[in-house]
Amino acid sequence: MPLCDAEKTFVLHGVDANMRIDGREREDYRPMELETDVVSHAFGSARLRLANTDVLVAVKIEVDSPFPEKPFEGKLEFFVDCSANATPDFEGRGGENLAVELSNCLASAYRSNEALDLKKLCIMKGRKCWKLYVDILLLEVGGNLFDAVSIAVKSALYNTQIPKIKSIHVDGSQIDIQVCDDIFSCTRLDISGAPLMVTVCKIGEHCIVDPNAAEEQCSVGAVVVAVSRGCLSTVLQTGTGSFHPKTLKECLKLGFSVAQNLEDSLMETLGEIKPNQDVGFLK
Amino acid sequence: MSRKIYIRLATDRVNTSVAIEGLRAYPSIYTPGQIITNQNEFMRGHGTYEDNGLLKASVAGVQEKVNNLISVRPLKSRYNGEVGDVVVGRITEVQQKRWKVNTNSRLDSILPLSSVNLPGGELRRRSVEDEHMMRNYLQEGDLISAEVKNVYSDGSLSLHTRSLKYGKLGQGIMVKVFPSLIKRSKTHFHNLPIGISLILGTNGFIWICPIINNTEESVGGFVQNLEEVVPEITRATMSRTRNCILALAQSKMMLFDTSILFAYEESKSITYQNY
């Protein structure tokens, strides 16, 4: 729903005065709520709620053959589904562009060497590997989608359990893989390098992080910065406006420092997860 | 340097509903399809239906009984308008001789051109020139406060702004809550002593703005001052009030001037945190 001019002015002046409409400063994040292992039939899942933004991520695994040019690596694929429940704009094919933009951004961020070691997903060189399908479902949209999605994806990958292989029988072109009988003996992924994305929004003369829906409407443009292991892996510009090189530099710097902060908080929270927690959507 | 980012685990979530805390009787909540009674001397009210001689709830909510009439009042619902209600709405469409307004009800409400005060407050028949000027008065996205003039048979509302207290809203914050949380009272316009004005729309839209001084009343509420910068102290109060209202709504507390003021005073003792 579009805002009126007076509301936009109010938001704009608020950003100028470093006091946003919810009392935050320009570099502040809204508190989040994280839940892992919510989808029982997936190999790993997470749900993240950032104020009014709600994202559910599930990871599914399949055996596949690796790309001929990368015989030692597994595969990783992202799929974003924009539920029309999230916002009426997603009805029909409305969410398609956003979905493609999100999955492309994730794919490009995870393509970095620092991000995720795909060699761990190799079962047999050039013949068999694990393929991870990361399905992202947007349940509600309240601004700052890129950040929320990247945090949820990282948490879901943290939660992902890959079955252990007991034996591989090769008979000509036939490959028979046997998975360990014990369903609890699984390996986990090393996600320390999985990228986190931070959206830096330019409103008026200043840059802010974690914009809400109203602030997104007031911004002239935004830069999404993906950071893994202290390196920028992807930079994406959204919105219509253009950036002055100096502003762009500031945006990158701000996004970078916030991403490190976010990384620390997320790893701390993920470390607190106890096994067999049973919450579900309703508590 | 940015401040700490809070990520909470869902297991640490606190149920903030006040009704759960001991002393109060916790009303039983019916879910759709749940049997209310099997005796057939009761009458079927809103939110219920009859199935094989059993009276069942059709919405999730609490039971209300007046003599023999049983109805279930939903906890969350769209706004059901009543004549005389004060509402806050957003213009979604400019049509011929009328505006469409989103008031959180099932259908968009109608604001006819004949039900607004013209700028300058002159009283006359609306001409074709006025029809051409409609977008200058109110355009898509504008927020207005209005009163419900009429409820049509399909539940859609017709609004009017024929009083100086209604009209276009200027700079401020709009908060959305459930309509059932707004307590109906004598006045829904409040000038709070903390230095802000509040419009508690019965449709669940709440408008927070700096104190409106009623000296220049002749304007008729179509003028926005976009140059004016709200002072930081007022802005802080408004933000705090906004957060208080959301906190009250999360705890399912009724919203009216006293409850909001109490929450505001209580919140002042809590040091300013991230949110």
Brief digest:
Chain A is an alpha+beta fold and 283 residues long. Chain A has helices at 5-16, 96-110, 145-159, 213-218, 245-271; strands spanning 32-36, 44-50, 53-64, 75-82, 122-124, 128-140, 161-163, 165-171, 174-179, 186-188, 196-203, 206-209, 221-228, 231-238.
Topology:
The complex is a heterodimer of chains A (283) and B (275).
Chain A: H1 5-16, E1 32-36, E2 44-50, E3 53-64, E4 75-82, H2 96-110, E5 122-124, E6 128-140, H3 145-159, E7 161-163, E8 165-171, E9 174-179, E10 186-188, E11 196-203, E12 206-209, H4 213-218, E13 221-228, E14 231-238, H5 245-271
Parallel strand pairs in A: 4-6
Antiparallel strand pairs in A: 1-2, 2-3, 3-6, 5-6, 7-10, 8-9, 11-12, 11-13, 13-14
Chain B: E1 7-9, E2 29-30, E3 35-37, E4 43-44, E5 48-51, E6 54-57, E7 61-66, E8 69-74, E9 86-95, E10 98-102, E11 109-112, H1 128-132, H2 134-137, E12 143-151, E13 157-160, E14 167-168, E15 173-176, E16 189-192, E17 196-200, E18 205-210, H3 232-250, H4 257-268
Parallel strand pairs in B: 4-8
Antiparallel strand pairs in B: 2-7, 3-6, 5-6, 7-8, 9-10, 9-12, 10-11, 12-13, 12-14, 15-18, 16-17, 17-18
Domain Exoribonuclease phosphorolytic (chain A): 29-163, 195-257
Keywords (chain A): Cytoplasm, Exosome
Family (chain A): Belongs to the RNase PH family.
